[in-house]
Design goal:
This protein has six helices and nine strands. With 185 residues, the chain is an alpha+beta fold. The protein has one domain: 3-Layer(aba) Sandwich (Aminopeptidase). Strands 1, 2, 3, 4, 5, 6, 7, 8 and 9 form a nine-stranded mixed sheet that branches. Strand 3 and strand 4 form a beta hairpin. It starts with 6 loop residues before the first strand and ends in a 12-residue tail after the last helix.
Amino acid sequence: MAESDFLILPERAEDHQTIEQLLDAAFGLGRRTKTAYRLREGSAPIADLCFTARLDARLVGSIQFWPLIVGGETEALLLGPLAVAPELHGQGCGLALMKHSLARARELGHRLVILVGDAPYYARVGFERIPDGRMLMPGPVDPDRFLALELQPGALAEAHGLILGDRERRRAATPSRVTRGRGPL
């Protein structure tokens, strides 16, 4: 089977349940406890970058991207989850989804993509290990699985510091209304 055998289409609302089942089959029910999932909490994926792969009209793959901010300044994307029906592993579905969605991200002007995943697999589309100390995830991550891809040259050099998901970024940007003493005047 070749990458071109898969029909790549934008994700639709009616795909949600099938995608959740696919994610459970690919990653197990414990997937939501991982650090990358913390970055997704309270935010929505970027609709223009969420795609499905179909084979004979059956949904067999899914890829999503989420907004991130690195060090309070640098916008980035979180790739994931990327899931493929277990019986199609090694058939090019995941690569087809990545190539299509990363090309679209580049077209839309995104500069940097981050993920936690299998380095040899993601290296096929250009992901590399993030240098130690450059970025910090909000939870434990194996440094050998902490990867980035520059969609525009120099984007990784601009990214330093703590990685926040969209919800945490919004929270950090909202002034707190802490009052001291007896309360508001």
